Each structure stands twice: as C-alpha cells, then as structure tokens.
Amino acid sequence: MIPPSSSVFKDMTSDLVAVQITVELFVATDNLHMDLASLAPLAKYTGGDMRYYPLFREAFRGEHLRQDIQHMLTRETGFEAVMKFRVSPGYQLKSYHGHLFQRTRDLLVAPNCTEDETFGCIVGVNKDFSGPQARSVCIQAALLYTSSTGERRIRVNTSQYPKSLDVEQVMASCDAQAAAIIMGKYAINESRNVSDARKYLLDTTQAALAGPNARLENLSALPG
C-alpha cells in the first residue's frame, strides 16, 4: 500500500474516459523498483488492467507475456460501456468496486468491458426501515455497451435477496469467496496504511465469526 508519488496519471483518466480509451498496462522490467502505485490508476479508472512482470527475462517470462497479450486482444469485449446499479427503497448503494470510472453517484463508465471483469457494490440499509418491503432487497444492474460487431446492446440483471434476522442463516447463504474479495478491495481502497486495512479486516471478520450471538449492528460493515 505504497502511496503514489504523483497524481498526474490519475488526473489523465477523466480525459481518457471522455474519449472512450481504456489503458492496458504490461509492465515488464528488470528493475524491482517501479512506481506502480502512480501507474495503476491509468488502468483502474479506464476499465483496463495492470500486469506486472518483475525481473523480466524473455527466455523465462516471454511466453507468459505473449499469452497475456493474446488473451487481451482476443477475449470478448464490449465497447463504450456504461453501467447503472439500483436498489429497492429503504436501501442505499454505499460504494462500488472494480476497474471503472464513477461519473455520478449511480452511473459507472468503462470504455472497454471484458469477459474478465467483475464489479461489486456494498449495499446498506437505512435506519428505522421496516414493514413488508424490508423483508427483502432487490438489486438491479444494467450494462449498456457496443458489441464487437457494432451492435448497441443492453443487459439487465435483477436479483432479489431475502432479509433475515437469523445470523446463522445469513452466514450459511453468504458467498464467502466474494465477500472476502470485496472486503479486501474495500480495505485497500479505503485505508491509508497497512495497519488500518488490517484492523478493518480483523474487526469485520470478528463480527462475522461472532455467530448467532452477534448483534446485527456489528455486522453493518459486511458487504451486502
């Protein structure tokens, strides 16, 4: 979690997104000391990715690099993509995670959207929200993009999740791998240093492992 030495590349991303440019970084170097923290926003906020090959030697890592470039060029890709999330009344979208550019509170932009991309969001419940509508939450994700054949398409996914006061039931139905990934992303993005990230992960995990005796308000930090 080394802070970037310069914000010049991050400042460029809004201009790149405006003209639908995605940056894919292949950092192959024999130097161990690279300012990856400054370079990373170029890929993160334009829908791209950064691949790092430390101590690169063509004889040992050349084939790996070639395969990665080939996959990047041949994978299924959507262009000029925008994504919008919605949740049912009584709930709110707290944050998003993924390689994209957040244009407004609920509108996300990714010049290139590929089959390898995964996006996540953290959903919170409003205080004092009750009644029949509070028994479940609906989450809708809509993706508008242009296919490789030039067709403008939209994909809409709407899911409904029941709300339960039984902590054991919640834990049994939780996707542990997805929750761990989002928790890790949240810790990295929202923490200023390793100590803060570690504390967030420990506190959240302890709240989750408290079991049936855990108070629901202690689980508010868990991804929704």
List keywords for this structure.
224 residues, Immunoglobulin-like, alpha+beta, single chain, 29% strand, 3 domains, two-stranded parallel sheet
Can you describe this structure?
The protein is of the alpha+beta class and 224 residues long. It has 3 domains: 7-74, no CATH class; 76-163, Immunoglobulin-like (Sandwich); 164-223, no CATH class. Helix content is 33%, strand content 29%. It is built from 6 helices and 9 strands; from the N terminus they run H-E-H-E-H-E-E-E-E-E-E-E-H-H-H. The protein has helices at 8-18, 36-44, 58-74, 167-173, 176-190, 194-209; strands at residues 25-28, 50-53, 77-87, 91-97, 101-102, 107-114, 120-125, 136-146, 152-162. Strands 5-6-3-8-9 form a 5-stranded antiparallel beta sheet, covered by helices on one side. A hairpin with a 5-residue loop joins strand 8 and strand 9 (152-162). Helix 1 (8-18) packs parallel to helix 2 (36-44) and helix 5 packs antiparallel against helix 6 (194-209). The protein starts with 7 loop residues before the first helix and ends in a 15-residue tail after the last helix.
